[in-house]
Design brief:
single chain, alpha/beta, TIM Barrel, binds hypoxanthine, binds zinc ion
Length: 340
């Protein structure tokens, strides 16, 4: 795919990622290395066995394996290595900005300090800025299968690190855990100055997207695929130019879609929705940003102009200030003039 004209175009275009779980970028090779130095046993004998286990029928089957993988992360250096490995990888893919989710409760519930997690991630993001030239923002996600009280504790723990965190989000098992469950936590988070986002409409119904909009006051929807089941909702999202962070390979691997050519991207674009392409959990779903762009471009026969538009959307939908957005979009324009 890298060798086709569209593949080369995708590989080179400057782009931003807006939906990436740092724990989902944990490659098996690094998992084994960190497990070894922390003296932790993993239940797989080798990397091949791990990869064979990565077959999912739904979100929950994935989450069970994703949380198990995160168990080996103990020390600040582990969180640094995890984050820096992701940045190194996407730097090769011409990513110039990324907005990263982290799930503190996945770690604090195992006795790892909040400070250990965020200090390791933040140190890697700073090195990413100075050594690789990648700009970044951090989004703290609450695990929605846990209760409101636990989310409040996490919010409290995050306050000393407020300057490092741009937004709060909501992830994990969607069905049965509607956004309304976290309305009060999100209100409090906004009082502290955090922006808000939420996973909604990945497996859950369109109603959850309404709740995320109206009760959580979100600035962006993560996934949002099922908005198409509700015409009035689509109209509202178009009117607000509310961005959707789509994740094509994730949708395929978690059976949100059965085939890549069933992906609703084109329908969404035709309706005027602001859509972006992202990787979600690249170590588990078979690809980082470029592989997601290739996968969908191939299945839906996207043109260079459409790829160019998606790359621009990724900056427009980001939490960068307007000035920086302009500077980065100018780079995308320049690339399109040269290679479009
Ligand atoms: N959905 C919900 N929770 C998640 C995901 C996802 O795609 N990835 C990691 N946590
Ligand atoms: Zn996600």
């Amino acid at each position: 795919m890298h060798t086709t004209p569209i593949g080369k175009f995708i590989a080179g275009i400057p782009k931003a990622e807006l939906h990436l779980h740092i724990e989902g970028s944990f490659e098996p090779e690094l998992m084994f290395e960190i497990a070894k130095r922390n003296n932790i046993k993993i239940k797989y004998k080798n990397i091949e066995e791990v990869k064979n286990a990565y077959r999912f029928n739904n979100l929950q089957e994935f989450l069970d394996i994703y949380y198990a993988g995160a168990n080996v992360l103990i020390k600040e250096q582990d969180f640094y290595d995890l984050t820096y490995a992701y940045l190194t990888k996407v730097n090769e893919q011409n990513l110039i900005h990324t907005e990263i989710f982290f799930d503190p409760q996945t770690h604090t519930d195992r006795g790892v300090e909040f400070s250990t997690v965020i200090e390791g991630i933040q140190r890697a993001l700073e090195d990413g800025r100075t050594k690789l030239g990648i700009s970044s923002k951090l989004i703290m996600s609450f695990l929605r299968h846990l209760d409101e009280a636990a989310a409040f504790v996490t919010l409290e723990q995050s306050l000393p690190y407020k300057e490092w965190i741009t937004a709060v989000g909501l992830d994990s098992s969607e069905l049965g855990h509607p956004p309304s469950k976290f309305q009060r936590v999100f209100e409090k988070a906004q009082e502290h100055g955090f922006l808000t986002v939420a996973h909604a409409g990945e497996e859950g119904p369109a109603e959850y997207i309404w709740e995320a909009l109206n009760l959580l006051n979100i600035a962006r929807i993560d996934h949002g695929n099922r908005c198409l089941e509700d015409e009035a909702l689509v109209e509202e999202l178009v009117k607000r130019q509310m961005a959707l962070t789509l994740c094509p390979l994730s949708n395929l691997e978690l059976k949100v879609i059965q085939e890549m050519h069933h992906h609703p991207l084109n329908t969404m674009i035709d309706k005027g929705l602001l859509v972006t392409i992202n990787s979600d959990d690249p170590a588990y779903f078979g690809g980082y940003m470029n592989e997601n762009y290739y996968g969908i471009a191939k299945a839906l026969d996207l043109s260079k102009e459409q790829i160019y538009q998606l790359a621009k959307n990724s900056f427009n939908a980001s939490f960068l200030d307007e000035e920086t957005k302009k500077e980065m979009i100018a780079k995308v324009d320049e690339y399109y003039w040269k290679h479009g």
